Amino acid sequence: MGFVTNESVALITGGTRGIGLEAARGIGRLGATVVLIGQDPARADKAVQELTSEGIDAVAEVADVADAQALAAARDRLGPLGDPDILVLSAGVMSERMARTLRTSPEEWRRVMGVNLDGAFYAIETFAQGMARKRSGRVIGVSACLGRFSGPGTSGGLAPYRVSKAGLNALMRNFAAEMQWGARGVLVDAMCPAHCRTDMGGPDAPRSAQEGAQTIVWLADRQATTSKGDVVQTGLLWEDREIVPW
Ligand SMILES: NC(=O)c1ccc[n+]([C@@H]2O[C@H](COP(=O)([O-])OP(=O)(O)OC[C@H]3O[C@@H](n4cnc5c(N)ncnc54)[C@H](OP(=O)(O)O)[C@@H]3O)[C@@H](O)[C@H]2O)c1
């Protein structure tokens, strides 16, 4: 049996389309109630209708993840659903194509950092407090190959995006250490979905959003300990269920 049960609540920022929506569908199919956070009310309604028609318990809250107060208000409106067992941080935006460091405006830097990095921190601060108290939870940061220092993260260009994802990796690693690498029942990991066919990834990407979301669903459903009672490997960066270097 996995971590996800019919009693579980999974909150997915950016769950209203793309990889986040597929993560919500995958976790919802395991029995969890899924809470989708997005900015666009029409897309949020459509995503809830889609999942509900498939038999998944789904609700949505409209909030800008770059606005800590908006997230806190969403949590208050959600009541018990605002204290999830699983938190997936998928909300993200891409940089402008020409965003080399010297061609990036302060406004563009702030826009991307606000969603991809501040938004991830705000969501953790808002929605993961109960996990630490209950000593049970899963936090999954949707990162990108473009944030990897061992890979294309330092190749130049798309500066705010690459740096925001490198920052997200650091945020997840630091939080995992604070959760004592799973010993407190909370597993914190980052993952790369690889290039997927979404609004962000474009129509020619090699894999579907559903394929990109598979590792998220797997991380959400992992038990914290092995059959021998050892804490599983956590506080890491994953791609296709394998550990990859940061
Ligand atoms: N697609 C890829 O090839 C790829 C590769 C590597 C990593 N990633 C990462 O995977 C994650 C999901 O990407 P995707 O391709 O699924 O993107 P997407 O199709 O563009 O969807 C983005 C999602 O994030 C939400 N969002 C954006 N800004 C927000 C904000 N300020 N507040 C709340 N929600 C916000 C969107 O909601 P609205 O509809 O309301 O705007 C939408 O649900 C991102 O973090 C991305 O960096 C994607």
Keywords:
246 residues, alpha/beta, two-stranded parallel ribbon, binds NADP nicotinamide-adenine-dinucleotide phosphate
Topology overview:
Blueprint: E1 9-13, H1 18-29, E2 33-38, H2 41-53, E3 58-62, H3 68-78, E4 86-89, H4 106-127, H5 129-134, E5 137-142, H6 159-178, E6 186-191, E7 196-197, E8 207-208, H7 209-221, E9 237-239, E10 242-243
Parallel strand pairs: 1-2, 1-4, 2-3, 4-5, 5-6, 6-9, 7-8
Antiparallel strand pairs: 9-10
Can you walk through the features of this model?
The strands form two sheets. Strands 3-2-1-4-5-6-9-10 form an eight-stranded mixed beta sheet, sandwiched between helices. It is α/β, with parallel strands linked by helices and 246 residues long. The chain has helices spanning 18-29, 41-53, 68-78, 106-127, 129-134, 159-178, 209-221, and strands at 9-13, 33-38, 58-62, 86-89, 137-142, 186-191, 196-197, 207-208, 237-239, 242-243. The longest helix has 22 residues, at 106-127. The protein is globular, with a radius of gyration of 17 Å. It has a single domain (9-243), classed as NAD(P)-binding Rossmann-like Domain (Rossmann fold, 3-Layer(aba) Sandwich). α1 packs across α7 (209-221) and α4 runs parallel beside α6. NADP nicotinamide-adenine-dinucleotide phosphate binds at residues 13-14, 16-20, 37-40, 43, 64-66, 90-93, 115, 142, 144, 193, 195-196, 198-201, 205.
